[in-house]
Write a structure and sequence with these properties.
Blueprint lengths: L3 H12 L15 H16 L3 E4 L5 E5 L8 E7 L12 H16 L7 E7 L12 H6 L18 H7 L17 E9 L4 H5 L3 E7 L1 E10 L3 E2 L11 H16 L6 E3 L3 E4 L5 E2 L2 E10 L2 H21 L3 E10 L2 E2 L2 H13 L6 E4 L5 H4 L5 E6 L15 H16 L6
Parallel strand pairs: 3-4, 3-5, 5-16, 6-15
Antiparallel strand pairs: 1-2, 2-4, 6-14, 6-16, 7-12, 7-13, 8-11, 9-12, 10-12
The protein binds zinc ion.
């Protein structure tokens, strides 16, 4: 029997492994991460799985199918958190997957394939700035150089792994081969308001949005705030204000597009000095690459136009770019049938946030199931779901697993 109450209790239990008193912060390879990993390993074993830490700190459990050594259906999510996090982001997916395996084991049920549940150690990238480190290891897309990445205290990932009792040099052995993994499915809190607005407990993800990140620098001329007349100024901050609003207008031009200026810095940054130089970031996300790239071009044009009109110099660098990761249509169909089997209306929606599936798609087709969250709030201690929704999510996942048909 699936127990939604137990899922909620376990989310609470994991939230207690935190470096932040009264809140939740648990970064990769910390003491708190160790405690959480031990607890999850215990739950996996109690659910009839063979479970252990892999060489790069992922928690990995396996429930054999009818025939030992069969390829697997991989389930999972992440066990690390952002700072001052909610208690469902990541954990809910790992705990729900274990709950499904426990339900199968309780009935002595074996499937024609194995099930593997992975609690990825580092999805958020808070400690080392290396997001999806754990899932990139599993998908074989990790470069050895990443192990030299250091945290704020100067410790490298390799050193932190050693302190944790693991040998990071064996990272290549964590990688799974294409034929070993029939598909990857992740249950995750929505982290947005769409399902709540539609009155639905769960939704099926169509694609994980791609993103483009840029940094713009505007150079004008610093000057005395009292002596330079307005018509002679080349104020970089006033120009940046126009740019921010132009970027907002571009982002609003299509309901599927979002755009954010999340950071701005003015120099020299004094109350009595005209800002001579301003740097700001731009982040665009969309479910189609073409839509996102079009927005990036429009933003670059807008910044250049503002700079030209105001006699400023503008440079725009592209910092990071990741294309859309589509969920596989054959898995979307199976997941939607599982939603319909709960008597629920089927709703497809894109994921605005990044997820481990973006790494795993290198070795397997992926699918995601979203569970409604309260007020669309996430990456925040106020993150909340209801026990009823946790139950619908887990039952949908279990139905999907039981009826899963590998692509022939
Ligand atoms: Zn997450």
């Amino acid at each position: 029997m699936l127990s939604a109450a137990r899922i909620m209790q376990r989310c609470e239990a994991l939230a207690r492994h935190s470096e932040l008193p009264g809140g939740l912060t648990r970064v990769f390879l910390s003491r708190e991460y160790r405690a959480a990993a031990e607890e999850v390993l215990g739950w996996m074993r109690a659910a009839g799985m063979h479970a252990q830490l892999d060489a790069i700190g992922n928690v990995a459990g396996r429930y054999e199918g009818e025939r030992p050594g069969a390829p697997c259906l991989m389930l999972g999510s992440h066990l690390d958190t952002v700072r001052d996090a909610g208690r469902y982001d990541g954990m809910l997916g790992v705990i729900s997957a274990i709950e499904c395996v426990a339900a199968l084991a309780a009935n002595g049920k074996r499937l024609p394939f194995a099930i593997e549940v992975i609690g990825f150690g580092d999805e958020e990238g808070v400690r080392f700035g290396t997001s999806m480190f754990g899932s990139r290891g599993v998908s074989g897309t990790l470069d050895a150089a990443v192990l030299d990445t250091r945290d704020a205290q100067g410790a490298s990932i390799a050193e932190a792994l050693r302190q944790f009792g693991l040998d990071g040099s064996r990272f290549a052995g964590v990688a799974r081969q294409k034929g070993d993994v029939l598909a990857y499915a992740e249950l995750h809190i929505e982290q947005g308001p769409v399902l709540e607005a539609d009155g639905l407990a769960v939704g099926v993800v169509s694609a994980i949005n791609g993103f483009s990140r840029l940094r713009a620098t505007l150079r004008g001329e610093a000057g005395h705030a009292g002596t330079v007349p307005m018509h002679l100024r080349r104020d970089a901050l006033a120009a940046a204000a126009e740019c921010v609003l132009a970027i907002e207008r571009i982002a609003r031009s299509d309901p599927a597009l979002v755009g954010t200026v999340g950071r701005i810095e003015a120099k020299p940054g004094a109350i009595n000095v005209i800002p001579g130089e301003v740097q700001f970031t731009i982040d665009f996300r969309a479910p189609q690459d073409a839509l996102r790239q079009q927005a990036v071009r429009a933003a670059i044009d807008a910044v250049q136009e503002v700079a030209g009109r105001r006699r400023l110099n503008a440079t725009i660098e592209r910092i990071q770019e990741l294309g859309v990761t589509p969920c596989a249509p054959w898995l979307i169909e199976q997941l939607e049938r599982a939603v319909a089997a709960q008597g629920m209306r089927v709703r497809r929606l894109p994921s605005g946030a990044g997820h481990d599936g973006q790494a795993i798609q290198a070795i397997a087709d992926i699918a995601m199931l979203f569970v409604r969250c309260k007020g669309g709030v996430s990456h925040n201690p106020a993150e909340a779901i209801t026990e009823a929704d946790a139950g619908v999510g887990a039952r949908t996942l279990l139905t999907f697993i039981e009826r899963f048909e590998p692509r022939s």
